[in-house]
Amino acid sequence: MGMEHHVYFWLKDDAKSDAARAEFEAGLESLLGISPAQGGMWGKPSPVALRPVCDQSWDYGLSIRFAAVADHDAYQEAPVHLAFIDRFREGPEPALIAEEPALLAGILDDGGLSDAWLASGAAWLARRHGMPVPEWARGTARCLPKPWFAARTHKLRMLLLQDSPTEFRIRNLFVSADALERV
Q1: Range of 160's domain?
Q2: Which of 7, 114, 146, 155 is the most buried (most CB within 10 A)?
Q3: Is the pTM of this model over 0.85?
Q4: Number of domains present in the structure of the chain
C-alpha cells in the first residue's frame, strides 16, 4: 500500500518577496522530481470560505506520493531534498518555544515520553541557536522516571549513554548526538 507525505510551510515576512517566493517555489518543484516519488503537487491555500476546521495560516503545502514507506525514507536522504532543507531552513523564532505547551502525559499513554522530548528539544534548539532556554524547559522539567533509549541493543545503548546531548540526558532520554541535526 502506498503513502502520502504532506508538509506545510510558514514563511517569515522577510521571505515573502516575489523573488524569495519564486526561489522557494522552484525548490518545491525540485522535490517533485526526486526518485522514488510517484508524483505530487505543491500549492498555496485556496480562498475558500473560512470554517473552524480550515487552517489557512500556512503559505505553501507540499504533497508527495510514494509506493511504500521505504521509498519515503529514501526520499528523505536524497541529495536534492537535503539541499532544499539546508537552503530554506530558518533559525527558529524564540517566541515559538517560549510558551509552555500543555502536558501530554494525560492525553498520550506514553509515560511522559512526549513531554520529555518536547522539553529536551526546546532546550537543545535554544542552545543550538543561541537563544535563551525557555523557563519551562530548564533543568529536569518533564523528566522521565526511568531511562528511555532510542535503541534496543546493549551496545547501541552504551553508545547513546555516551553521545546523547545533555538536554536529553538530564531527562533520562538517550538519543544519538545528531538526533535533531536538521532541525
Answers
A1: 94-174
A2: 114
A3: no
A4: 2
